[in-house]
Predict the structure.
Amino acid sequence: MGKPAADDAHGRILAAIRAIPAGEVAGYGEVARRAGLPGRARLVARLLGQNDDPALPWHRVLRSDGRIAFPEGSRGFREQSQRLRAEGVRVESGKVKGQRAAATLDEQMWGMPMAPPPARQHRGATKKTTRPASGSKGRAPARRGARS
């Protein structure tokens, strides 16, 4: 499966942004994932930077830590804060408070996501044991480069 065409990717990103409900937010990476483009958060940011559609709810897209991406005090910062507050979103010092990102489709259909599976050991990893290695007869193993 190849990369989607730029126009197709842009259309999917714009659709994902339009699907964020009023009063909710999503991060750039979450928007990319919802558009079927995981790992393309920068593409989302670039597309929003070139946006000229006044109906696009661009203000609902934030950094992954819930902060507004515009420099504090800038025109864009003030406008995004104002638009979010008008939708009932609590914004303090440029960060959305008390709200998690909008639910994914899986969460909407199946409920809260499951906990991630436990970390697996890498191939060749061994458990530490307190028993001496075979043939060492209880002595500590020789260190590399140690002189006797």
Observations:
- The domain at 6-110 is CATH 1.10.10.10 (Arc Repressor Mutant, subunit A).
